[in-house]
Hints:
Elements: E1 8-12, H1 19-32, E2 40-44, H2 50-57, E3 63-66, H3 83-89, E4 93-96, H4 99-105, H5 109-121, E5 125-130, H6 134-138, H7 142-153, H8 159-162, E6 166-169, H9 183-201, H10 203-208, E7 210-214, H11 219-226, E8 233-236, H12 243-255
Parallel strand pairs: 1-2, 1-8, 2-3, 3-4, 4-5, 5-6, 6-7, 7-8
Amino acid sequence: MKDLVRPVVAGNWKMYKTISEARNLAAEVVKQAPAPSLATIILIPPFTAIQEVKKTVSKSGILVGGQDLFWEEEGAFTGEISAIQLREAGCDFVLVGHSERRQFFGETDEMVRKKVQAARQHELRPIVCIGENLEDRKNGQTLNKIKSQLENGLFNLPEEEFRMVILAYEPIWAIGTGQNATPEQAEEVHNYIRQLIASRYGKNVSACAIILYGGSVKPANAFSLIKEKDVDGFLVGGASLKAESFLEIVREASRSKEG
Ligand code: PEP
């Protein structure tokens, strides 16, 4: 896959949308989406709707991702889904380590590491979520948390594989709460992530890395966040469930290209 056009805006539909609802939402997004030369759009529906969404967006330049995967290729793992299955259904991306997976399903950095490797073995680009909780932030532990998540979950990857990873900084206290990080708070962490990447993989890899912000992104705050130097796009939850708000965020994000 060639380099992605920035901004990159991904919509995580979580456990919302039946197949027909997903088809309708994807069709609305296709109808009103800006040209692929202005932004990369990734839709991340529930597993049941991936194939239908892929069919709906075909030829539009819009891309599709899964919300999770298991690291084995196949086997007696009831309820799980493999990279091969996601690929065949039409995915080019997969979310890994979303805070809801870490919080409700016990996902650890070690599991994130295995999932990222499995994704790369089958040419899926992982969108890896990292971020601190409110307690970490209050205790001044935000940057330490980010560092340990990157070191334990990702920095084992060889350079050519790491280049295929998209990072999503998602402060847990901002997800689904309506309370986004300020542009300054987001930039501080994004810049720190870029520095850590530079010291592990070098300046060139660091400059190319795509680092999304996620956590209560809305049309009203998207432009102020995207203007920050190290914010390359968004991972959007709630506001991606309606075409209108999702596309407004995409448009606000691509305005940053206008200078
Ligand atoms: C998310 O689920 O990754 C997310 C950022 O959700 P929301 O936009 O609703 O905060």
